[in-house]
Amino acid sequence: MGRKWNNIKEKKASKDANTSRIYAKFGKEIYVAAKQGEPNPESNRALKVVLERAKTYSVPKVIIDRALEKAKGGSEESYDELRYEGFGPNGSMVIVDALTNNVNRTASDVRAAFSKNGGNMGVSGSVAYMFDSTAVIGLEGKTADEVLEILMEADVEVRDILEEDEAVIVYAEPDQFHAVQEAFKNVGITEFTVAELTMLAQNDVTLPEDAQAQFEKLIDALEDLEDVQQVYHNVDLGE
């Protein structure tokens, strides 16, 4: 499980060099979530999840407010939610989630990113069965035993609790995302190092050095696409 957290850390660490891209993606995701229900996180659980994630990436309030105001203003702009599955070098597995207002453009761009970087697109279901949808919540300042006690007192069940790199990482079912956070907030913990609904590979793989370099180019190419929101994979990127 620890290697899975390493991959999430790698994604968060890359944010520093790509803030404008990350913020733009969050702006779109916040807008879409707000349009799907009320633009109020207290009554719109999907929006609340996105805003919690945005907080851990330090998305500026102006970006969030702009997206919410756009949704409240009745914008007719609409996006389709798409998921692509494919394979990278040495049979590595990749899932790509996108929000797009042009399905043909996005499909073409994703396919090109795979083909130019040693990969190929797969059919729906060819990869996803090897991943588990998972809530991942991390915090500092507590031990794993203390976190377990907090969650037990709140009667919240989780998959696993691990101490890693001065943080405690909680892995739970997606429908427990809010319950885990509320349990912590009820004891005064309001800051989280990570708060993600993600797809975690059931088994990570390690690639040879040359294949890993190519794989990282593939992931970068996919994440650079305007319509791509999230990229998940089963490669251990190491430290």
Task: Quickly list its features.
four-stranded antiparallel sheet; Arc Repressor Mutant, subunit A; 22% strand; Alpha-Beta Plaits; 3 domains; alpha+beta; globular; 239 residues
In brief, what are we looking at here?
The protein is α+β, with helices and mostly antiparallel strands.
CATH class of the largest domain: Alpha Beta
Please name the CATH topology of the largest domain. Alpha-Beta Plaits
What portion of the residues fall into strands of 2 or more residues? 15-25%
Low-confidence stretches: none
CATH architecture of the largest domain: 2-Layer Sandwich
First-to-last CA distance: 14 Å
Overall mean pLDDT: 90
How many structural domains in the coordinates?
3
Total of helices: 8
Q: Round the Cα radius of gyration to an integer and report it.
A: 18 Å
Percent of residues in helices comes to 40-55%
Main location: cytoplasm
GO molecular function: DNA binding
Domain TACO1/YebC-like second and third: 79-235
Family: Belongs to the TACO1 family. YeeN subfamily.
What does this structure look like?
It is a single chain. The protein has 239 residues and is α+β, with helices and mostly antiparallel strands. The protein has 3 domains: 2-72, Arc Repressor Mutant, subunit A, CATH 1.10.10; 80-129 and 203-233, YebC, transcriptional regulation domain (Alpha-Beta Plaits), CATH 3.30.70; 131-201, 2-Layer Sandwich (Alpha-Beta Plaits), CATH 3.30.70.980. Helices cover 42% and strands 22% of the residues. The protein has 8 helices and 8 strands, in the order H-H-H-H-E-E-H-E-E-H-E-E-H-E-H-E. The strands form 2 sheets. The chain has a 4-stranded antiparallel sheet with strand order 3-1-2-8. A 4-stranded antiparallel sheet has the order 5-6-4-7, sandwiched between helices.
